[in-house]
Structures are given as C-alpha cells and as structure tokens.
Amino acid sequence: MKSHTYELTLADLGRLLGGLLVPMVGFAAIMRLGAGAGMLPLPRPNFDVDQTILTHQAEASRSLSGADRLFIGDSSCLMDFSGKYLEEINGGSHRVINLGSLSYLGLNGYAALLSRYAAANPGSLRTVVVLVHPEMLRGVAPVSDYLRLLSDYYAGADPGDASTFQGQLCGLFGLDIFRNRLLSRVPLPLPKPYGQYYGFNADLDEFMNRHRGSAVDPGQYGRRPGQGNAEYRLSPSWQDGCLALKAAVPPSAKLVIGITPVPASFAPPNYAARWKEMLDQWAQWMGADAQLTDLPPTLPDSFFASTTHLNEAGALRYTAILAKCLEPYAESAVK
Please, is 178 exposed, middle or buried when counting C-beta atoms within 10 Å of its C-beta (0-12, 13-18, 19+)? Predict the structure, then answer.
C-alpha cells in the first residue's frame, strides 16, 4: 500500500541545485578574491607528519638564519642528529641549520632547498653536509606529489588534485584555498606514536624550530621479519641528481658527505667494507671536498627507532660522533 508519491521535475531540481550553487559560488569568489588581494595567509599545508616537515623545511630554506653549517639529506639526516646539540658541542662557534627532509624528495628536491637557502643567506655558508641512509643510495625514485608540494609552497600556490573530478570541484569552489590557508592553521593531532611524543602538528613545527630543523623519531626498533632488504648498493641513476646537488652548493662552502648508520643486527656480512665502497663512489659522483669516513656504518640496535632512523638517545650519541668527525673540515672551510 502506497502512502505517498513524490514527483520531481527538472524545474524543481534546478531550484534545488540553484539554492546550493549560489552560496558555493559566493564562497569561491570570496576565497579567490581574498587570496588574490593578499588578505588571506599564504598556503601552508601541514595536515600530516610529512607535510609538516616539508613545509617547515621549505620555510626555513628561504629564511635568514646566518648558519654557516647546513645539513641536507633524507629523513635519516632529519632524525639522526640534533642541530641544537651540535651547536652546543661546538660551543657556539658554528651556527647550524638542518634541512633534512624525506627520501621521496630526491636529490633534485634537496638542490632546490639548498639553492633557496643560499639565495636567502648569501655568503654565509662555509660547510654543506649531505647525509643519507644507504637505503636511499639504491635509487629511491622521487615522488611527484612531494616535489609539487615544495614547488607550490615556493610559488605561494594552493596545492590541489586536478586529476580527479572531486579535486577539480574543490579547486573550482575555493575549497583548496580554504583548506591550505585557513584550515591548515588549526592545530591537528598527529598519529601515534608521533602524537604521543609531539602532540599536534604545530608542536612538531615548533620542536623543529628549537632544534635547528632536526626532529626525533619516537619509535623503538625491534628486529622482526619484513623490515626490508639490507643488500645496499649505489644506483647509477643517482649520478644526475648528484650533479644537480653539487651545482647548488655556493662557492663559499665546502661539500662534505656521509652515510648514516643501520642497526648492527640488520647489517649484512662485511657491511663496513661495502659502506666504504659506496661512500668512495658517491664522493666521486658528487665531486665532494670531503667524506665522513669516521662515521660508524652501524650502531647498537638499542639506539634505533627503525631500520632507517635513530631514536632520541641514538641521535644524541651520533651527534657527538658527528661533531668530532667534522672537526678536521671546520677550519679548512673558512674563507
């Protein structure tokens, strides 16, 4: 038994959609006009850990800091030492900035960060230290989304996804502008264990400010199956990126390179010799002025958060080792 019957005509549908479309068009106009007139903040997408790290390092790369020692590389560079502690060990004789980010940015992405910093701080750099994990030496392919986020940030553009219909609608109606310029300013909780250690994305950003761009991986390593392949090698595909990164080093600076450690139980047999071979070959491709041959290829498992990152205790230990290894190059880098 039917109790009701509804008829929806095209005119009814038009009125219904029109009632929604008018405020949406008005919202889009406000967003676009506000962004174009400079009335809205610049885009700062930081909705997860990776985005927060990238936007922080991009902003730091174009800021005046006066650092004479710059570190750049993958997430092991970001996590494996403390820029603040390194300054303290040096007694304040060197100002440090760590622009370590993510392996998915690639060497060309690192070159973009370095070039921006050199342009914003002309003549200040004396040493550029490149630190990467042996995992990256195998030729980790850059991810276009990360490179696009970096280029959009530098251009002051609002990141969006034009490859999907939903993404196109978000761009059309100003939702990307609202999300990247306004919603991104609202503190968002980070996922565990980062949420337990830092709290919110704004807390991670502030932590990196206090520690000269360094961060901490709050995990704890434990050997178990499925943690990756330890057969490390140096990929020939790296050579073009090495040339780009070398070209970004300013004339005032010396280029020093190093490979970060892996857990002792994870390293393959005779890894120390293989580590040295990779470092020598990479130094040739980079045209490096020096290589950090005294850095340890491995450290005890208790110092690690994962196969690729040291934990907080490990980072403090590695910072002390790094400071000592850099001593021979400090004076030779001064003009």
Answer: buried
3-state class (DSSP) for residue 284: helix
Q: Which two tokens stand for residue 170?
A: 């978000």
- Tell me what pLDDT residue 335 has: 39
Low-confidence ranges of the chain (pLDDT < 50): 12, 332-335
Q: What is the DSSP string of 56-115?
A: HHHHHHTS----SEEEEESHHHHHSS-HHHHHHHTTTSS-EEE----GGGHHHHHHHHHH
Query: What local confidence, expressed as pLDDT, does residue 74 receive?
Result: 97
In this predicted structure, what is the pLDDT of residue 213? 97
Distance CA 201, CA 184 (A): 10
Output the DSSP codes for 288-324. -SEE-TTS-SEE-GGGBSSSS-B-HHHHHHHHHHHHH
Which residues share a beta bridge with 290? 256
> CA-CA distance, 317 to 85, in Å (whole number)?
10
Residue 137 is predicted with a pLDDT of: 93
Q: How many CA atoms lie within 13 A of 209 on its CB side?
A: 10
Would you state the pLDDT for residue 54?
A: 96
Which of the listed CATH numbers 3.40.50, 2.60.40, 2.30.30, 1.10.1740 matches domain 49-156+190-330? Answer: 3.40.50
Task: Identify whether the C-beta of residue 100 lies closer than 8 Å to the C-beta of residue 77.
Answer: yes
| Separation between Cα atoms, residue 178 and residue 51, nearest integer Å | 17
Q: What six digits make up the tokens of 50?
A: 């990776």
Contact 251, 214 (CB under 8 A): no
pLDDT number for residue 9:
61
User: What secondary structure does DSSP assign to 106-121, as a single string?
Assistant: HHHHHHHHHHHHHHHS
